[in-house]
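question for whoever is on the cluster today: can someone run the full assembly for these? two chains, 1528 residues total. i dont have access anymore since they changed the login thing
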Amino acid sequence: MRVLTCFLIVLICQHGFAAQNAQEYNRDVRPILSENCFVCHGFDEAAREADLRLDVAESALADRGGYAAIVPGDLEASELWRRINSEDEFEKMPPPDSHRELSAEQKETLRQWILHGAPYAKHWSFIRPKKSPIPQVANGEWPRNEIDHFVAAKLDQEGLEPSPIADRHMLIRRLTLDLTGLPPSAEEVEEFANDDDPKAYEGLVERLLASPHFGERMALEWLDAARYADTNGYSIDGGRHLWLWRDWVINAFNENMPYDQFIVEQIAGDLLPHPTDAQLIATGFQRNNMVTHEGGTIPEENLANYNADRVKTLGEAVLGLTLGCAQCHDHKYDPITQRDYYRMFAYFNTLSDVGLDGGGGVNPRPFIEAKTVLATGELPSLQERIAAIHEELRHLKPDVLAKWEENQQALLRQRGQDFALHSIKLLKVSTPNSGAGFDIEEDRFVTISQPPNFGAYDVSMRLPDGGLPITGLRVVFHPDPAAPEEGWGYGTLPQQKPGLDSDAIGKGTFVLTALAASVGSVPGDQVDLHRLFEIQRVTANSWREDYLPKQVLDARRINGWSPEIESMGPVHITLTLAEPIDVGQTPYLTSHVNFGHPGKLVGGRFEFYAMTGIDEDSDLPGEVLAVLKTPFGKRSPQQSELLQRYCADHAEATEPLRIELENLEERVRVLTEKFPTMVMDESVEPRETRILIRGNYASPGEKVTPGTPAALLPPPANANANRLGLAEWLTMPTHPLTARVAVNRIWQMLFGSGIVSTAADFGSQGTWPTHPDLLDWLAVDFVESGWDTKALVRKIVTSATYRQTSATSQTSTVLELDPDNQFLARGPRFRLPAEFIRDATLKTSGLLVPRIGGPSVNPYTPGDLWREVSHYGSTPSTAQTFFQDHGEKLYRRSLYTYWKRTVPPPNMVAFDAPPRETCSVQRATTTTPLQALVLLNDVQFVEASRNFAERILAHSDHDKERIHWAFKECISRMPATKEFDIVTNTLERERKRYDADEAAAQSYVSNGESPRNEEIPPAELAAWSQVAALLMNLSETVTCN
Amino acid sequence: MNPLQDKECHETRRTFLGKTAGGIGQIALGSLLSASMPHAVHAAADNLGSGKLPHFAPKAKRIVCLFQAGGMSHVDLFDNKPSLAKFNGHEIPPSVKGDQRLTGMTSGQSAYPVVAPLWQGRLCGQQGTWISDQLPYTQSIADQICLVKTVYTEAINHDPAITFMNTGNQQPGYASMGAWLSYGLGSENKNLPTFIAMVSQGSGKNPGQPIFSRLWGSGFLPSSHQGVGLRAGSNPVLYLNDPPGINRSQRRELLDDLAKLNHLRAKELGDTETLTRINAYEMAFRMQSSVPELTDISQESPATLADYGPEVHKAGSYAANCLLARRLLERNVRFVQLYHRGWDQHIAISRQLPNQCRDIDQPTAALVRDLKQRGLLEDTLVVFATEFGRTVFSQGTLGDPRMGRDHHGRCFTVWLAGAGIKSGMEYGKTDDFCYNIAENPVHLRDLHATILHCLGIDHARFTYPFRGLDAKLTGVEEANVVRGILA
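^ ran it for u. tokens below:
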């Protein structure tokens, strides 16, 4: 017996894992002790009861004055055995108030364990992994590489058989989704299905590994782990700039940067000799933590929270350890002391970050300005297109200009018809951050006597009822004696037309950054965000070229309306409403007046008028009006040129071109200019680190220096006690955790579940690996390969294990035997991550714009969800109101969608995307009705169905071929006869419906901003769109089979 | 039973019970999907703490939480004492103020003068509970509610404090109360989500402190348990409406086709998760009619509408949300969470607070009365809460119209009513300055434990495995049910 015990221990120590069938401490016994006993009899000294530890043999077996908790081989003498079987409420273990109870099975395990000598072992994941010999397996034909030997050995043990290889359609779909996050095209499917090269699959793997989308796909998991987002989080959640780091990650995967380097540069790129900009950008990894700029918070507390988050993230993302559990006390389960914790904390406590920072859209310090690491190969094509657009705008098609002028002339003819103004009675004015300095005079003027730096005022009023429908709202700003030089406001702007009036520069003015209104049947102190007026037109009697009237409709602080400083007398702005107000129904109006620019650019005295009839003003500048008044034949070439230029810059017809131009010019800047990005650095005067008693920042204890946990391997001899030393320790080839954790996460990505299913916890409370020897083999091989991520992915996806079909026949028992597919007797199957569902839809529809990287974008969102909960109007921070982008930015891959932490994109959250507030290395895959609503009704997906329909129609003239192609394009296979019949029936039904209801057809195909092919009759397009929507909603479409 | 059906049963149940990438065995009994499953399934799930739920017979079947976001002034509204008038304008004694931390907004002040409640109040109900005249309707329900005057929290700023109150932890990443209950108790309505959140804007301070989806999020629980936002406007649940150019019968037919295709393929692949997805589409379809039916208040009697006050006609207002809350509770929605913003009176409290009070007073009282009249208060718990109170001393200069009060977590008032709660009582005492607790402290963990208790749940046994811990709503520190307020 003793010999066996020693043998077991030796075996465990040498290999990390013992033979599979014998009882094993780490797999079988430790989880029971850990779950039920370690809280009081474990590693945490402060919580330890009766001075007894059951996590180490020395204490568990020690003589306690005539008895011992465990006497190897002797149940009767083992106090533990007596206690767990006691009925006495004071003796029974675990004690009744712990609400824990051992099952009969668990007791039996402990009984066997004690009887067999109670062998202890070091926790498996703390022992350096070794490659164990490749198991020989009965089914010698099946394995394609080492992975399969380990898997087959396990299947043998469990009495399971591997499934057949998946067919080519399933294979290419799975592989393409797994390696790029996008489905293959119908043509790619076809080509692969018919490729008789025996190495066709391997060729496909190579092609996909080389795709630039590989980096995007791989980045997604790391962005979750790193809690990447575009806002600071916490309550105000203002915008930040860290996308250069995100692009660094994509690039690192695409260039197959060795994983050790990937970690070193992110943890300590700034401490490398002569760091490059790229290495500095990389350190943004540990700046992804949330930061707060909530007034009143305490900087020391904030900084402690930031570092705690960094330690937690490092633990879960890199080490697979729940280090965060040791913040307030020693770890309950793993050998991590609170002191260890604060030594890790100390590595990051040397940054020069500031406890209250990051407001106003400016990055929290420290940050640098740097250029993107992305390749700039697309520059020539960008510039070519930009030049072409300029050309197109310079030479407008005559009919564009003619149509625009016709419109303008019509508007000018109506201008001022029945126009009248009616003074509005003001009821109340309010602003969030001041109790004084603003008032109402004579029931009609808002007066601001103490201008804030930026200020938002809500004005509640009672509309006059003159019987006529109210068509608009005018706000008049009066010269105010209290303002500088009797201007209209308290701030000054640089003069726009130099030389005209040199005195004007001192005149007080304002910038109106937002103007909105709503009405109701009862007075409203605040504008009703859910019922803001739709505005048809904005005019003013004066404006600066850099502050146009229509900019008040963009609620952000970045622009607004300001009158020309040379104007005299009152200035006004007029909103024409899309729908007139029925004063009988809704007599109360509330207007939101926002002066958002710094420098007290706030109005002094203003009043409101209701407009009836048609606005007397025009949004055209005087010189354009002059041209329009000149008969066509009498215009000078300069006048014609002026008109053409104005039309190019303002007409609705040229808007798509202008948007495209703006997007492309931004893209050029992204590739060529420097942008701010958050980094780590070493403070000139680093903060000292003390153990925080009970984790409380205000209770500092013993001082500690940076260092790694004592229970793990020691750092390299020459390592410094700084982040570089930490990084070197993490990436030591002998490190027991780093490679295992990385390998496991990639396995999880490809199989839906890791070999260790608790990917963030390889500690005592983590789950036992399903294939321990395989995990170790892969981890060692990963290190030996030079931490080669692509090689690891290649190894996994070329295995026979990965290539199995995920289908199970109706007679198979495998679903009963292994419902979770732990033993891998079939191929993986899981619902796609949120991002890939949207990306796949965009690709299938042909809308996807496959650019890599750049600032995040704001595609369609149902309304301004941000402003409903944000600090809009009360803070200089950005990202308080949602402003949708246009053009190509609607169709970028989803990892580029602007991630506001407190209001993440709802169509992503519906599919389990985490909020990115804290580290997350596993996503749930739920199935909910909200997901159905997104896929059926979100304009992004509805528009995609229409675009997919256009592609289907373009593919062939025959319905049958169209349907075949649509199946292949969407789900990478041909339809079965029954499926074909169902879809054909759908098509015929929808054709009939839309043929009979042209208006509905027109309405459906108008969803979304992308232009539609006008040559296709709307009814035909709408009918096919329904077919497209049907396919895009298939369970198979959102699943990786 | 044929093998596939058999597998379907197994797999469907399993999918209902959740499947995570990691297979921790999470229970994704989505608030949104559970109704078609027998109730017993929830309780039988292996990971639901260490026992079946509910652990004992619940008094409350459902809960509505009326959350006053920003920090409601307990001093002005609920916790007046004669001593305050006496000390008005005098510096708060150092022995009372102690050395506890203040926020950065007042920590630099040179003086901390006591400000007595800014308005009169009166003793209400049979017990003579003092309630401010700013809350006349609340005064009238004094006999229905139980004021707990000694709730306290360690957090002193909004984000950690409101996160603490709603999720049991000051840091992000934890599950909200409603998510816990969705996870633990599931749904009793197959057409509506289990957990609904609604937000309204205060008219005292606009915008108020931001709030965030984390407060009704699922944290470490599967995301199907997150609160579903019910919003004013044409799309009360995001993406609820069919797109332009689609009608209901057409959608029905398309879903039938979709189900047929999905069934065929599910059979072919042995893919039973697809069956769950078919159910999800069906529930989505039902929600498309049940939600508009819910939000249509045209059938409410004029008397009821009048009770909730004039703002009930303004969708998205606190009053309208209170009425919707009753309609949701009537339909057996498990957890209804309201947030009313704007209670952060650092500045101009004399100007802002009356507006905030007017927003919520009449609708809140109307909701309690309405629930009572309909017999719903017997098995519905009403919680009226906030993240902290406000300082008895002034922020800014005494007498200045800009004067306000800073955050105060050492003690503040919360009230509860309905199922399981003693009505018409006050619990706990603060000192003469409403600054420290004199007797019966109630940590917000205790409040959580008490809420769970009313729903038949032992907080200590209601756990979820996360990162090696059995995570609880009440966290790792001791929490106790406040027995003194239980009926």
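summary bc i know u wont read the tokens: The longest strand of chain A covers residues 571-581. Chain A has five domains: 2-122, 263-288+297-371+675-735, 375-414+627-673, 416-617, 834-910+927-1041.
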